[in-house]
DNA sequence: GTGAAAGCGCTAACAG
DNA sequence: CTGTTAGCGCTTTCAC
């Protein structure tokens, strides 16, 4: 039987069990327990390999907390998401909070389903990446008093916490870096503009181009690039056009990899400049090294999870959007000058 | 109030609520409900944005299931783990099962804590990577009737399901590949031998060397390499020794990256051959391309999660260790011949 | 078809 | 300090 060995313990020891030893290994620091009683309970706990049922407890507990968090990331197999997940796990572990992780896949329907699944499991809080500008479930969640912290993308909804990269500023810096090397005919390879961060990066690109006084006719913007293959195909088209760009700004790590393949296939990796948004592994080992605007996913995760626990501990300060700075890492590809 | 809007619904509709509409969006296919009653309940459900409490339900449900799985991977920010996690999530999603994910970090104490945390949350099953040859908690779990499937590493314990790469065979193939190019002085850079998969790869390396009749004096084996920095330092030492290897077999993806850095720093990337175990991103874009023995984490995850659900559905066939084949991908670095 | 009642394992409140 | 009791939201069973 599944819960076989558990019931007898309770039968005999009743509430004593949980007043004494329940949490992890240590004694529940419940005061006013006689050493003899504690020992008796502990013997039983060990003899039966008793593990308290946290779920049952949350049902009756005053705060109703399940010591559980729902995390929705772009995809659990994306390295950017992985780093965020890891730091959230680490901070949660210290507080004996477990985390449910799900992948968004930039699918609003999947997002709704994931949030509903979290809610049915009574998570204490939600750390979410959203595919929507104005998530529809927000009202329902707020009414329930469950804190939400958005990561990676800032929803348009007012009054929610969000932690994201300074996408606009980072894209501006990347573009400015290329302009400073003398480029004017610069192509932006962007993800779907539905995605808030993709749009912010596009805006940053336009900021820099405008500030430099470069006419929009020189800026080629390709959007709706969601995977490596699409990016590769798009850049291949541009390179084979009658008036190819002298520099490329790729708006996302998969796009960067696709762009690298396209440049390599045309033997142009030392001719056409490239700056990518978000770092890619082994970027320093390819030739030339890939210049990127690196994000700081560890910091995004850390700030988000700390905000979450602050909210859970009663912080009622006004919700804020926190922007984590990006860092331009020059490795070679972004320093290639335009042809003389 | 947290559960504020939920109680009134129950107060009025009692058990009707859950006989009619609870699961996800669809009507619980409970038969024998009058359309009028169902409509009444559905109105209330929608009006209150009611979400059933799955946890509370599992408490009373006959099978006691929480529709929850515990997943312990090497680290949620490791790409190999990420792919496994993703396919497990995908299959679980279809069955409306949520997954708790944790990172092992090759720390036995962390492993014990993670398993205990899963148990306290009454997960239905455990998919585990282990840092131990003989996990101590196994007896306790078996008594509870919770299925366990090990991934990535095979514990020595008998009678448990496990799904892992054919580590020994893959390492043999990698080493044989180097020997076939004429190498005899081959270095193995290995992880901690405590880790079962690292040991299996070492055994495969020795299999191939032995079969080729290469004296062990020509095989340099460095073990206990757990991160990129250690691997880089170890290979640097070897390259600067009086009798450096002509080829390197790196036993793990972080070691491969460390080895690439060491070779590059010595300008030997076109001189010393390298084959890595486990694929690395952008391996085809560095020069030379990195020859690897690729694992199939997607298949490992798929087989593991399918075995898990089979067990949960009552499959009582004898536990098995399933080995997923590896694939040698020749990209250049492994085809460099020894100096004439 | 529908409603009422018991009880899952726990915590909270209170009586001894 | 210790034991008892009620009840969290649900599923199960049984009476209507």
From TrEMBL, chains A, B:
<dbReference type="GO" id="GO:0003700">
    <property type="term" value="F:DNA-binding transcription factor activity"/>
</dbReference>
<dbReference type="InterPro" id="IPR046335">
    <property type="entry name" value="LacI/GalR-like_sensor"/>
</dbReference>
<dbReference type="InterPro" id="IPR000843">
    <property type="entry name" value="HTH_LacI"/>
</dbReference>
<dbReference type="InterPro" id="IPR028082">
    <property type="entry name" value="Peripla_BP_I"/>
</dbReference>
<feature type="domain" description="HTH lacI-type">
    <location>
        <begin position="28"/>
        <end position="61"/>
    </location>
</feature>
<protein>
    <submittedName>
        <fullName>LacI family transcriptional regulator</fullName>
    </submittedName>
</protein>
<keyword id="KW-0804">Transcription</keyword>
<dbReference type="GO" id="GO:0000976">
    <property type="term" value="F:transcription cis-regulatory region binding"/>
</dbReference>
<keyword id="KW-0805">Transcription regulation</keyword>
<dbReference type="Pfam" id="PF13377">
    <property type="entry name" value="Peripla_BP_3"/>
</dbReference>
<keyword id="KW-0238">DNA-binding</keyword>
């Amino acid at each position: 039987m599944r819960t076989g060995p558990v019931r007898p313990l309770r039968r005999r020891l009743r509430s004593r069990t949980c007043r004494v030893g329940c949490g992890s290994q240590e004694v529940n620091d419940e005061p006013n327990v006689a050493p003899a009683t504690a020992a008796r309970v502990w013997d039983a706990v060990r003899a039966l390999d008793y593990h308290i049922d946290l779920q049952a407890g949350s049902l009756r507990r005053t705060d109703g907390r399940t010591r559980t968090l729902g995390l929705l990331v772009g995809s659990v197999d994306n390295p950017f998401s992985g780093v965020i997940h890891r730091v959230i796990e680490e901070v949660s572990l210290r507080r004996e909070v477990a985390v449910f992780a799900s992948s968004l896949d930039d699918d609003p329907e999947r997002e709704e389903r994931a949030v509903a699944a979290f809610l049915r499991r009574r998570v204490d809080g939600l750390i979410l990446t959203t595919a929507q500008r104005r998530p529809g479930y927000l009202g329902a969640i707020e009414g329930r008093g469950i804190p939400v912290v958005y990561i990676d993308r800032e929803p348009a909804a007012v009054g929610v916490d969000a932690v994201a990269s300074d996408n606009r500023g980072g894209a501006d810096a990347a573009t400015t870096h290329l302009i400073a090397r003398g480029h004017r005919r610069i192509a932006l390879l962007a993800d779907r503009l539905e995605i808030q961060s993709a749009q912010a990066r596009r805006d940053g690109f336009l900021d820099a181009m405008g500030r430099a006084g470069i006419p929009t006719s020189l800026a080629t913007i390709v959007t709706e690039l969601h995977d490596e293959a699409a990016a590769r195909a798009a850049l291949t088209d541009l390179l084979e056009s009658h008036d190819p760009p002298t520099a490329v700004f790729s708006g996302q790590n998969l796009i960067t990899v696709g762009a690298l393949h396209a440049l390599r296939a045309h033997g142009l990796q030392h001719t056409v400049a490239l700056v990518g948004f978000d770092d890619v592994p082994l970027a320093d080992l390819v030739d030339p090294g890939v210049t990127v605007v690196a994000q700081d996913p560890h910091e995004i995760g850390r700030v988000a999870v700390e905000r979450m626990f602050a909210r859970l501990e009663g912080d009622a300060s006004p919700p804020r959007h926190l922007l984590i700075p990006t860092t331009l890492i020059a490795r070679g590809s972004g320093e290639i000058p335009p042809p003389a």
